[in-house]
């Protein structure tokens, strides 16, 4: 996730034998030299001297004339390839594209993407988008775009390839865990407008708010939604963070503050620089103390996980997820730094700004746990019918426009990037969404610190699994744990969002009957009735 505010590097007039040396030194000295020890500083000068020598040799002796700009940018990109995939140099075009991405409107296929284990990976498709309608799913690995391998591609480069004029097409090939063949999707780009918050009353008692992304106005818009619910005398709220890939750190904090008492820790960040070690607390009184259920799935990432983690740790509400999965597990903070120098000028002769996006910290839940690459474990896990989540993406969540079906074909080929960190074929080597068993050694969401792999820590299971209820959805065939047929839950012939329906019924049972969400032996703490003193840190819990 990105922390939006930018600061400009201070200029330092350093003169070297080559222009390349000037550029590299300005970046490194202007940004990091103050934090570098004397020994490392001496080594820095040795490295820059070596860089200058290599640059000169290439310019004078390479078989063809070299474009200096491409050479410089290649060197800069190379530095960032040694870091995590979220850190990168942003040339003027990519920097401009990044700022457009925060505006909420674009023409593309509707995918939130990242680099995971060296492979371009889908965090979540935007519900109702061309990608969602075609059948692209969270954790799909994109190995080709328009016939070209994505090996070594950056996120910004991938975004440029996937976006384009409305009506044009792009073809992607993906590997999906459990599928014997690659899937090829031909997608028609559409104009996509992503609003931050959608809300409505599900009935006369339950307010529903879907947060699609965390942008500049998210907390303000969600506050409006809550005020609307209060005007309608709502008795409970469902906050939907499914398929929300994240956004701005500040907005995640402000959204959490809408529900948490003043003074409560929401999230902390830890990094190498002193100013990155911060603790963020709720600065205001909560807007509401109504009972709360938060919906998450494996497409909930970054800022979504900050909110879900804070709500869970303070027992302010219940986290309702999907059996067999957690949230995505992106727990790092990126800072965008606009550079004082650039390679390119505009038509008026002014330098176009470039920037770097740098991972500067990791974030931790109020209990002191990092969920990076682990995710948030739901309190309640709903067992969905086979294929239901895919149908939900095609149908769209509340606020998504109906979309036309796109084309999907299967391709019997293998994933064979020998130079990729996976170094194997896809079925044997790609990393699927983390399962409970695979994450046993990654850390504990219950403890006060991240456990090392040697400590063999097992992550907690959801407090209760809710299987599919035949009485609610008679069209959904179920036999024990396995589903016989891929049928959509329906009610009166209409598609039903089963996870949302379970949340609604649980909340109604709690409001109307005081019915316990959990089995008696669940180990959940007693509920704190709505309206009681929130300074006790327990706030409102939906468990009795």
Automatic annotation (TrEMBL):
<dbReference type="InterPro" id="IPR036034">
    <property type="entry name" value="PDZ_sf"/>
</dbReference>
<protein>
    <submittedName>
        <fullName>Carboxyl-terminal protease</fullName>
    </submittedName>
</protein>
<feature type="compositionally biased region" description="Polar residues">
    <location>
        <begin position="413"/>
        <end position="423"/>
    </location>
</feature>
<keyword id="KW-0720">Serine protease</keyword>
<dbReference type="InterPro" id="IPR005151">
    <property type="entry name" value="Tail-specific_protease"/>
</dbReference>
<dbReference type="Pfam" id="PF03572">
    <property type="entry name" value="Peptidase_S41"/>
</dbReference>
<dbReference type="InterPro" id="IPR055210">
    <property type="entry name" value="CtpA/B_N"/>
</dbReference>
<dbReference type="GO" id="GO:0008236">
    <property type="term" value="F:serine-type peptidase activity"/>
</dbReference>
<dbReference type="Pfam" id="PF17820">
    <property type="entry name" value="PDZ_6"/>
</dbReference>
<dbReference type="GO" id="GO:0004175">
    <property type="term" value="F:endopeptidase activity"/>
</dbReference>
<dbReference type="InterPro" id="IPR004447">
    <property type="entry name" value="Peptidase_S41A"/>
</dbReference>
<dbReference type="GO" id="GO:0007165">
    <property type="term" value="P:signal transduction"/>
</dbReference>
<keyword id="KW-0812">Transmembrane</keyword>
<feature type="domain" description="PDZ">
    <location>
        <begin position="95"/>
        <end position="162"/>
    </location>
</feature>
<feature type="compositionally biased region" description="Polar residues">
    <location>
        <begin position="531"/>
        <end position="544"/>
    </location>
</feature>
<comment type="similarity">
    <text>Belongs to the peptidase S41A family.</text>
</comment>
<dbReference type="InterPro" id="IPR029045">
    <property type="entry name" value="ClpP/crotonase-like_dom_sf"/>
</dbReference>
<dbReference type="GO" id="GO:0030288">
    <property type="term" value="C:outer membrane-bounded periplasmic space"/>
</dbReference>
<keyword id="KW-0378">Hydrolase</keyword>
<dbReference type="GO" id="GO:0006508">
    <property type="term" value="P:proteolysis"/>
</dbReference>
<keyword id="KW-0645">Protease</keyword>
<dbReference type="InterPro" id="IPR041489">
    <property type="entry name" value="PDZ_6"/>
</dbReference>
<feature type="region of interest" description="Disordered">
    <location>
        <begin position="518"/>
        <end position="544"/>
    </location>
</feature>
<keyword id="KW-0472">Membrane</keyword>
<feature type="compositionally biased region" description="Basic and acidic residues">
    <location>
        <begin position="451"/>
        <end position="488"/>
    </location>
</feature>
<feature type="region of interest" description="Disordered">
    <location>
        <begin position="396"/>
        <end position="495"/>
    </location>
</feature>
<feature type="transmembrane region" description="Helical">
    <location>
        <begin position="14"/>
        <end position="33"/>
    </location>
</feature>
<keyword id="KW-1133">Transmembrane helix</keyword>
<dbReference type="Pfam" id="PF22694">
    <property type="entry name" value="CtpB_N-like"/>
</dbReference>
<dbReference type="InterPro" id="IPR001478">
    <property type="entry name" value="PDZ"/>
</dbReference>
């Amino acid at each position: 996730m990105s922390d939006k505010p930018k600061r400009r590097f201070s200029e330092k007039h350093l003169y070297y034998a080559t222009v390349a040396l000037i550029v590299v030194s300005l970046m490194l000295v202007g940004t990091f030299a103050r934090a570098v020890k004397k020994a490392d500083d001496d080594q820095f000068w040795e490295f820059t001297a070596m860089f200058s020598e290599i640059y000169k040799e290439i310019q004078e002796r390479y078989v063809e004339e070299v474009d200096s700009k491409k050479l410089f940018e290649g060197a800069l990109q190379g530095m960032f390839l040694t870091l995590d995939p979220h850190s990168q140099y942003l040339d003027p075009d990519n920097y401009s594209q990044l700022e457009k991405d925060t505006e909420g409107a674009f023409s593309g296929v509707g995918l939130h993407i990242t680099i995971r284990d060296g492979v371009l990976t889908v965090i979540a498709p935007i519900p109702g988008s061309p990608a969602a309608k075609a059948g692209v799913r969270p954790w799909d690995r994109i190995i080709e775009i328009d016939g070209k391998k994505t090996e070594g591609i950056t996120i910004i480069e991938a975004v440029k390839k996937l976006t384009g004029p409305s009506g044009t097409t792009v073809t992607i090939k993906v590997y999906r865990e459990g599928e014997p063949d690659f899937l090829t999707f031909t997608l028609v780009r559409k104009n996509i407008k992503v609003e931050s918050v959608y809300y409505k009353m599900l009935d006369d008692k339950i307010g529903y708010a879907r947060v699609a992304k965390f942008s500049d106005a998210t907390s303000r818009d969600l506050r409006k939604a809550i005020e609307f619910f209060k005007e309608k005398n709502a008795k409970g709220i469902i906050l939907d963070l499914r398929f929300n890939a994240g956004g701005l750190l500040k907005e995640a904090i402000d959204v959490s503050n809408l529900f948490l008492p003043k003074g409560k820790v929401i999230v902390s960040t830890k990094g190498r620089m002193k100013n990155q070690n911060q603790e963020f607390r709720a600065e205001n009184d909560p807007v509401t103390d109504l009972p709360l259920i938060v919906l998450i799935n494996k497409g909930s990432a970054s800022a979504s996980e900050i909110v879900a983690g804070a709500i869970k740790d303070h027992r302010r509400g219940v986290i309702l997820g999907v059996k067999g999965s957690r949230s995505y597990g992106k727990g790092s903070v990126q800072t965008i730094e606009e550079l004082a120098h650039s390679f390119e000028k505009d038509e008026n002769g002014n330098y176009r700004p470039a920037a770097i996006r740098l991972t500067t910290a990791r974030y931790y839940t109020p209990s002191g746990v990092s969920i990076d690459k682990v995710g948030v474990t739901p309190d309640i896990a709903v067992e969905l019918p086979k294929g239901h989540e895919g149908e939900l993406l095609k149908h769209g969540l509340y606020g998504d426009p109906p979309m036309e079906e796109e084309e999907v074909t299967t391709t019997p080929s293998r994933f064979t990037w020998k130079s990729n960190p996976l170094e194997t074929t896809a079925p044997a080597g790609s990393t699927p969404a983390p399962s409970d068993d695979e994450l046993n050694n990654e850390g504990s969401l219950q403890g006060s610190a991240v456990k090392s792999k040697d400590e063999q820590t097992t992550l907690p299971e959801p407090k209760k699994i809710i299987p599919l209820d035949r009485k609610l959805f008679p069209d959904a065939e179920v036999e024990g744990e396995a589903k016989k047929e891929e049928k959509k839950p329906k009610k009166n012939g209409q598609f039903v969002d089963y996870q949302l329906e379970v949340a609604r019924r649980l909340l109604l049972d709690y409001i109307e009957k005081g019915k316990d969400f959990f089995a008696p032996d669940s180990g959940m703490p007693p509920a704190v009735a709505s309206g009681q003193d929130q300074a006790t840190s327990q706030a409102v819990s939906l468990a009795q």
